[in-house]
Structures are given as C-alpha cells and as structure tokens.
Give the backbone structure.
Amino acid sequence: MGIVLGPNRYGKAETRVVRIVRDTPRHEIHDLNVSTSLRGDFAAAHTDGDQSQVLPTDTQKNTAFAFAKRHGVTSPEDYALALGGRLLGATPAATGATVSVEEYAWDRILVDDAGHDHAFVRRGGEVRTTLVDVTADEVVVVSGLHDLVVLKSTGSEFKGFLRDDYTTLPDADDRILATALHATWQYAADAAARPVDWNATYDAVRALLLATFATTYSRALQETLYAMGSAVLEAHEEIEEISFAAPNKHHFLVDLEPFGLDNPGEVFVAADRPYGLIEATVTRSSEEGR
Amino acid sequence: MGIVLGPNRYGKAETRVVRIVRDTPRHEIHDLNVSTSLRGDFAAAHTDGDQSQVLPTDTQKNTAFAFAKRHGVTSPEDYALALGGRLLGATPAATGATVSVEEYAWDRILVDDAGHDHAFVRRGGEVRTTLVDVTADEVVVVSGLHDLVVLKSTGSEFKGFLRDDYTTLPDADDRILATALHATWQYAADAAARPVDWNATYDAVRALLLATFATTYSRALQETLYAMGSAVLEAHEEIEEISFAAPNKHHFLVDLEPFGLDNPGEVFVAADRPYGLIEATVTRSSEEGR
Amino acid sequence: MGIVLGPNRYGKAETRVVRIVRDTPRHEIHDLNVSTSLRGDFAAAHTDGDQSQVLPTDTQKNTAFAFAKRHGVTSPEDYALALGGRLLGATPAATGATVSVEEYAWDRILVDDAGHDHAFVRRGGEVRTTLVDVTADEVVVVSGLHDLVVLKSTGSEFKGFLRDDYTTLPDADDRILATALHATWQYAADAAARPVDWNATYDAVRALLLATFATTYSRALQETLYAMGSAVLEAHEEIEEISFAAPNKHHFLVDLEPFGLDNPGEVFVAADRPYGLIEATVTRSSEEGR
Amino acid sequence: MGIVLGPNRYGKAETRVVRIVRDTPRHEIHDLNVSTSLRGDFAAAHTDGDQSQVLPTDTQKNTAFAFAKRHGVTSPEDYALALGGRLLGATPAATGATVSVEEYAWDRILVDDAGHDHAFVRRGGEVRTTLVDVTADEVVVVSGLHDLVVLKSTGSEFKGFLRDDYTTLPDADDRILATALHATWQYAADAAARPVDWNATYDAVRALLLATFATTYSRALQETLYAMGSAVLEAHEEIEEISFAAPNKHHFLVDLEPFGLDNPGEVFVAADRPYGLIEATVTRSSEEGR
C-alpha cells in the first residue's frame, strides 16, 4: 500500500487591494482583501520539487493588483470572476481557481451635510464577502457577509426543550437574542451570465435579513435563521441556497436581588465564551418544502 | 536601603454591562465595557496579605451592574461619575477611583424605512470612550473615541523633510492619507457640575474631527492632527485639551509598469506593519498660541 | 419548487474546561477549549420553533464540565470520545455528535531545577487539537495541532517556476522558509478500539514533523509538506491520512545597498500580509504511491 | 487665551526585523518587533506643515534594518541603545529618542536529540521587551516581559476583605491563582555603562519571578506581586524598580452538585471577562522598607 498526494491547492491569501476611482473629482474607493488559489495537477511540485507548472503566489498577487486597474472593480463578484478566469487560463496544470474577496465599506465624510468628494470614514460593521470558483465547465458564485451583529431586546423565547440529567437551564419566556451573523448565499448557475446586479442584490439581501430578524418572533435562533433564509429565497429567485453560522451571543440577566433591586429585563452581562453556535442551510427542493 | 511599595492600584476590568431601557415599547440599548480601579493606601494587602481594606474586584463588578439599574445609563460619562463616586465612598482606604467605559453604538434595524422598536444592529466603526477619575477634591473627565478609521484619497503630501544617510523616501506630492484615530479630550474642571451635555458634545466633536480631516489640506499627519485639535478647542470652550494617537496607515502605490499599466493614484496596497505613529496634544495657554 | 431545510447542526462552542488532577500533592492540569455539536433531525426547531427534540447548548456545556469529572481527562481524544458518545446517546433525534477540543500545554515551574508540584507556566507555541465525530456506526478521530511556527534560515530555494506576463519574482537560491503549521491527521477506523496511546502518538508525530521540516532540503513549501506527511504515514500505520494548511510566512531580504551595506541573508523583514497559503493532504492508496 | 501644541512625538511602530547570524553553519536568529519615536521641537510640522526638521518615519525604519546589520543584535537592549543614539544624533530638533523592542524566542528544532543548525521552532509563551530612552543627558533602560501566563492550582486564598452592600463574594480558602504577567524593570542609571549582561539578567529575573510565584503562599495577588518584586530587587542591585500589571485570570469552580458530583477543586471554568487587574510597583527607598 502506497503513500500518495491527496487534495491540494495553493495561492496567495489576504492581498490588500485598495482601488481608488478618480476619473472625476468625486472619488470612489473599493477596499478589498483578496485571496486566490489554484488546484489541479501540481503533484510534481510536491513529490519532486518541480515548480515548472506552478504559477507563483507572488504572480497571483501581482495579477490581483493589475486586474484592479485593467479590469477595474465595480463589485467584488465582477472583479473576482475576471481574476479567477485569468488565473485559471494562465496556469495549464490548473483545473480550478478560486477567488475570495472581503470588502470593507467606507462612507463619505459629511461636511455641511454633504458627502465629501475624497474623504471617507470606514463604516465598520459587517464585512461583505464573495467566493468565486472557476473551472472549465462552470462558475460558482457564493456571496455573503460576516459579523453582522444584531440583537433583539424582546420577542425571543426558548422553552419546551429536551431535558436530561445534565440540564439545568430554565425555560425563558423573554430573553435577549443576539448574534454575529455569518451568511453565504449561492447564486444560480447562470447568475454570472445574466448578469445579476451584484451590488443591488447584496443590499437587498442584507436589508431583508435584518428586517426578518427584527420582525420574526423567535422561539429559537434556529427558527429565526430559517425564517431569514426562506425570506431570501422567496424574494430572490437568482439565489439557490443560503447558509448561516450564527453564534448565540448570550446576554445573561444579572441577579440584582442581593442589592435590593429587581431586574425586569434591564441589566445583562454580555458573555464571551462559551456561546451557542447554530449552523443551517436553507435551500430549494423540487418538491414542496415543509 | 530598603525595598518599598510604589504606586499601585487594583480593580475589575472589562465588565460587559448591557442596559436595556424598556420603560416604553420603544427600547433603548446601552452597551458598555466598564473597568474600574481604586488607589490609595493598600500597602497591607501587598506586604502582609491583609485584605481588610480591600473592596474586592468582584464587588466593583457587582456595583457596576447595580448602578446600571439604580443610577441608570444616560451617557458613559454620567454613569461613570456615579459609579466612581460610589466606589471611592465605599472604600475608606481609597484616595482615588477611576472608571473607564467603552460604549459600542447600535442602530435600530430599518423595517419599511422606520427604525424598529426593539431590534438593533451594531454600528461598528469607532468606539466611544470615557475615563473618569474621582478624588475627594476633584473630578476629571476625559472622553474620546478610538478606531475612527478615516482616509483621504487626495489632498495630502509629504515632502521637504529632513534627510540623512538612511533616507530613501522620495517626496510625495499626492498620496493617500489614512489613520485609525484615537482621540481623548479632557473636559474643564467644572464640566461635571455644569453639567455638560455629554452625548451632544461627543457627537459634535466627532463631526468636527471628521469635517476638519476632510477639508484640511495635509502636509503631514501632524498638521492634520493639529488642525483637528485646534478646531475642537475653538468650538468647545468646555474642553481643555485634546490628545491624539494616530497610526499612519500606509497605502503604497503599486508599481504596475512591469505589466504595461500606468497607475496614477488608482491601485494601492494597504500595509499592516510597520506604520507611522503620530502622537500630539493640543492644549490651551494663557498666552497666545503660535 | 419549495424551500427546505438543508444541512444543519448546533452546539456549544468554546467551553473553557480546566481540569486539575489533585489525587496526590503533585497536581496535573488539563486546559481545554471544548466545542460540541449535534446533527440529525432538528427540522421542527427550524420550521415550527419546536424545541422538544433539542438538547440545549447549555446542557452540552454542563455535560462537558461534568464529564471532566465523571470520565476524567487523560487525553483530549479520550475525553472527546466519551463526551461525544454521551451527547449522541442523550439526544434521540441526533444522528451524529462532534466534539472538538483544543488543549493548551503547561509546564511545571522550575524551582531549584525541579518541577513544582502545583505551579505551572503556560508553554505557548502550538495548540493541540482533536475532532471526534460519533455516529451509531462509526467513530472518526482527527487529531492535530495548529500554530506550530517553524523557520529554516537556509536550505530552501524556489526557482524554475511557471512565468506569465504578471510574473516579476526572481528565482531564489537560498531563502528563509517559515510557516505556522496547521496539521490534522485522521486515525484508522479502529484506533479508538485498539486503543491508540493518544498522547504518545501526538508527541511522536509532532517530533517527526519538526525533524522532517528541519532535515528536508526544500524546493518549495509543497515539497516540504509532502515529505512531512509521508514521514508520518510511514512511521504510523494507525494514521490514515494527514492534511496541512501552511501559510508561507514571507521573510523578505532587506535591500541595504543604499546604506553601503551588503546583506548576504542576514537582515529580513517579516511580512504580515499577503502570504502564500499551501494546503495539501497526504494519504494512503491501495496502489503504489508516486 | 491661545491654543498651543502640547507634548508630541512621532515614529515608526512595529518594524519586524529578523536578524540571522550566519557567520558559521550554526545560525542564530533574533526576531524583533521594533518601534522608534522622536520628541523635541517639531512644532513647525504641526502648525505650518514644515517638515524640514522631521526625520521621516520611513528613515527610522530603514535605520532599524541597517543597524541590525551595522551594529548587530546581541540583545534587544544593546541594539536599542545603538539605534536610539543614532536616531537622536541624526535629528537636530530631537531632544529624546525612544526605542521599544519586543523579542520572540525561538528554539532549535531537535533532530536525534540535538539542536539543528538552521531550523527553529518558535517557543511561544512570554514576549521579552525593552524600552530604551535616550537624551543628551541620560539613558534609561526598562526591560521586561509580557504574557508570562502562570497558574497555581493550590496555595492561594482570598478572604477577610472589606465588605459593603454590593459584596456577594464568599471567602476562598483554596482557589486557583492565575495571571498573564506583565513586568517591567528599570535598570540603574549606570547599567548601560557597566554594561549589564542583558541576556543573563533577563533569564535570571524571569526564573526568579517564576520561582517566587510558585513558592509564595498567596493571600492575594497583590501579595504575590510584592513578593516577586522584592525578590528581584534583593537579588539584582542593578535594578532600581519593577512594575507589574497582572490580570487576575479567574478560574471559577463549577457547581457539579446538580449532577450528583462533588467538585473538590477539580473542575473549573476559565473566564475571559471581566478580570481583576492588579498593578503595583516595587521600588527602592533610602529608608527601610516595610
């Protein structure tokens, strides 16, 4: 029985590409963190140290910068599609290329109630993401966001759960529900061809996730995630599937009774660890959903 | 020659107090990270292990939670003043108490263009801070913010600097200027007594810092900071002094010439380390300033 | 076409369990970060808010603590196997349970050249990991380490690579090779039954990874990883497969020529981002390996 | 009343200098994070944008790299003294220069029980630090370490403390005491002139801190810190003063009674926040200490 190379890939991670659009005095900024990787038949590099089929990660980085100029950046998705196609084409041994992009949002600084032409303040909050995978046969686009931190101060319960010998948690009729949402949604196979308006779709999905979180009475974080995912799939036929990873950021009611104070849902301690972690995918079926 | 105890203090750091105001269906949220410390004559605890004068850090934590209910949280400053006074009063051996608060901002989630009553999204961006120091004689309030990340895509130069044998940097006529601003401003001694409107002042100072950053042509980050500080002192007579620590977050122009591309200020790499670090205080003088 | 629930799981992440063995005056410490999750038919929780089949994450946390006492901790693997079995058994709707453990190593503090009985200093360096997956039919144990930071100051080249229009990297005959190694190895299906000596195997694999890194002349990080993986599989028939994720932590030679200094591999800048990222699996085949 | 510039300084932070000593086949590595700053009369840069007296932070970085070659690195202190002297000398407007260095330790990789010539593994654990301040008149050297994480599983109590209305903490007869030690010690004014053996002193102080922590019965973290500081000052007359910042990393005993288990100091949860924070300086006096 022999020892063989299994799945492998390589690339350049976290190239910090900042693209300023300055065609007019009103500049725009695209602030990206770009990671690329190639997979395919690179066995010789592993077993014989033969680099002749290996496009260096340094070249991948150079290409990321060059394409920010040559192709430009109108959206992370559009840029990643171009970059992934180039890397795949430039590397005969590669069978697939992935480009992963994080985008950090900036707002114009307000001066006398108007956005300034070339001064910006980083928005903070969630990071927009995309992961584009390119092969000879197909292109897959999975976009998303992470660290969208949301909280409901009421409208959330957790009760009627399974109990065993190690269960001490009481039912909760009214609790804080908070999470740092990570969501990724896969576009339909023809999305790049249509093409989808990536920026408008991102804004719409984000708004829908937030509104659904706000307006859904929650009997568990699971139920909230399912509602959010269903809402997105119902509204966006160009999206095939959406996945969530949501840490349940516990806010525990503080016992103020020893100090002669009641605490009807007013003072909480925000805990760091441990945290619940709920992961779920909502997808489409050829049959009726439940 | 003997060995003696020098300066010392102790306290509870990073108590994560979340206060929900739910007097009406339209909730409010105050999300705080509270650190307290006491100083005074605690020598016996160090030299003899005698805790009889030591109010435990656990009690300091309890007090932080209890005061979020008993006193309430209208601003970090107001809350910190109450908490600091309590801790000093409760500890006979203490000569001073400091309360440091970070506040994380939340926005209401928009549903049909209106802010929801009890669902929030964390704003991200800068963190608001205050440091209150209370002694028998005086109260010092130093408020501020950190990690306000700003960037100008033009309107910044750096040239005519001192050169020595190790200088290779060329003059820059037009560069990106970016920083993650840390600013702290000390209020006048009577600020707590007036009292100042802490929240309105914070908003005004933040807006003024941003607008001055945007509209000042910069010949160095130092000049920008001085302009920002001067603007704040001119507009806010209740503020005595303002200090900055500002990492110069370098954005280096990428050389695209090897790829047959020009790069007139369009594609940059955002560097992590090293970074310039500029620190400056702008203050008042009984004489005319320069 | 309907909307349906796809893959999902839930659990408690990052429960910080510290177990002191104090059966004799010579204490031992096991310092763990434990994450558990359950998967199975939890659809009702998502679609109907019905928690009746959901063992709370709070209970999972309690069980993690209780099992540190009831079962004890001799190795992360042994503890995780017991905990995973319990969680699966306690949850009728679950078809699988995973337990992920990080272990932080501590050394005894040296006093007069002897290790102290009950005083420890955290070792730092790499973190030991295990991921145990339990179903009715089988148990999978994947152990590993992360952040084992290694560096060779010579004995590494990178040349003869594929070049395209975006390639500017020159051949390197002698460079620093450095990485923060993440490695995971999957044990054979019968490993838990034998049982394997988990601690001894961990120590042996770690030592072998290090020695192979040290003694392999590297024509690429890929070649080094393959050599390390092969060495482990050759020496440990109880291991089926080993996977690596290795950031190429670039150390760039600093150009000192402007200062009249040569730099024959002596002064480097350690870069943060971007970094190469090499991922590879070495596995067994029924055929001869290449 | 005017607005004026107050205290200010500027420099380059976190230059990651890696120095390989390869005079023989048995290489050595010095892995440093170097921050420099200059203070003096730099008012014109702030008020008039005049850079003519400003040695760029880019030049400071260059100098840090050049001095790693020209002067070499035998210890962080020796290197920082040389670098600080150079920067002060090169900048006429400067009245002081500070150089702050973190050093990350590496061990030789063991191959057949012998340390390899040019392959290293990062040790982890504490970071060694020095802060050197150079003016025309004097040189101050403050060395130290941070994140030396230590724990005692017994031999620590906390009781007899001051109680008020917000105190709920019970006396603890036997608890875990753990901290991530930050310590800085100031050398005597003539230390650089003697010179002190910086590396040997560092090792000795570190060992003494650890041994004292281990062997001192603790009635409070304050008492432990004072004992550690006293031990250092007693053993090292070349050290004037030592300061500590020590987070009390709480390990809370888990209540296992609901599960029918006792817990005599065996199972703890390691908490992240909040944490006690104890700061103390131990110094010398012309009088007898208490």
Notes: Chain D has a mean pLDDT of 97.
